[in-house]
Amino acid sequence: MSSGTAPQQQTLAFWIESPGHGSLRREILAPPGDDEVSVRALYSAVSRGTETTVFHGRVPESEYQRMRAPFQQGDFPAPVKYGYASVGVVEAGPPSLLGREVFCLHPHQQRYVVPAAMVTPLPPGVPASRAVLGANMETALNGLWDAAPRIGDRIAVIGAGVVGTLMAHLCNAMPGSRVELIDINPERAALARSLALDFRPPEQAADECDVVIHASGSEAGLARALQLAGREASVIEMSWFASQSISLPLGEAFHSRRLTLRASQVGTVSPARAARRGFAERMAQALALLDDARLDALIDGESGFDDLPATMAELTARPGALCHRIRYLQTA
User: Fold this and answer.
1) So what's the architecture of 9-133+295-327 in CATH?
2) Distance (Å, whole) CA 133 – CA 125
3) CATH 3.40.50.720 in the chain, residues?
4) What's the average model confidence in pLDDT over 128-140?
5) Which of 89, 95, 114 is nearest to 2 (CA)?
6) Where are the beta strands (DSSP E) in the chain?
7) Rounded Cα–Cα distance for residues 299 and 321 (Å)
8) Band (7; pLDDT cuts 50, 70, 90)
9) For the structural domain made of 136-263, what CATH number should be given?
10) Assessment of whether the complete model's pTM goes beyond 0.70
11) Sorted alphabetically, which Gene3D superfamilies does this protein's record hold (predicted)?
């Protein structure tokens, strides 16, 4: 049986009511059953790329099922409750989790009840305020398992958003590697410096790379990625273009250099690790990799949950945002 169980209670959740418009809805939560936990949210985060697509109703109909978040309610395009970066404290559930701060792939909501197996306790050294980057780090980790960079590699990461910067940060720890973080926004140079990364605008990036990671979400960025790749090199596509069609220069030297263009998607554990890692192990590893205070630089804004309908509309219309953190009332 669960210990510390709570009676039925009300909560507020953020819903996309129609493309470009959201609201807070009141919901009723049943007490957690056996092997469930009741979580009170401390923080959540807006995953700008995916949540912009969802908020504005741009998910292609062909992807409705594959794009579902673990605890999504409703259906695309709307009304839908969507999101996957929540950090909270367990208020009721198994004794081993009671009072623990945990990460959960849950939409923006004050309180929620989920299976205990779906929350991941935060490791020592990772505060709840930084753990909202967990889903981004999980994407970066899975992408690097796909990319398989090696010691001494020349690596280019195009797109200094949250996922791209995290991937460059992880690659930079490899001995002998040459890592460049590339972006058209010169203001990203300060972010790169805070993480001891070399920053380059696209036109100054070094070529003949062994691995190129594209995370800019732009057609021009992917075209530049192909240009920077050396013979027999791999280009890993981290961006999702939703229903947008893009053109690529697959003539020129694409064939003569025998390039590999490969998509990476976090919905599946990379085949390079799937035989030995599950989703829970991958998330635990991702959270452990956040034990670095310098990563706080990726959080460039914070606002209250009560303001989320207006905040989401503003954030998804503004280019260049990094991770925006949502703060919940800290009272029980």
Assistant:
1) Alpha-Beta Complex (3.90)
2) 14
3) 136-263
4) 98
5) 95
6) 9-18, 21-29, 36-46, 73-74, 80-81, 86-92, 101-104, 111-115, 119-121, 154-158, 178-182, 198-200, 209-214, 229-237, 260-263, 299-304, 323-327
7) 9
8) low
9) 3.40.50.720
10) yes
11) Medium-chain alcohol dehydrogenases, catalytic domain (3.90.180.10), NAD(P)-binding Rossmann-like Domain (3.40.50.720)
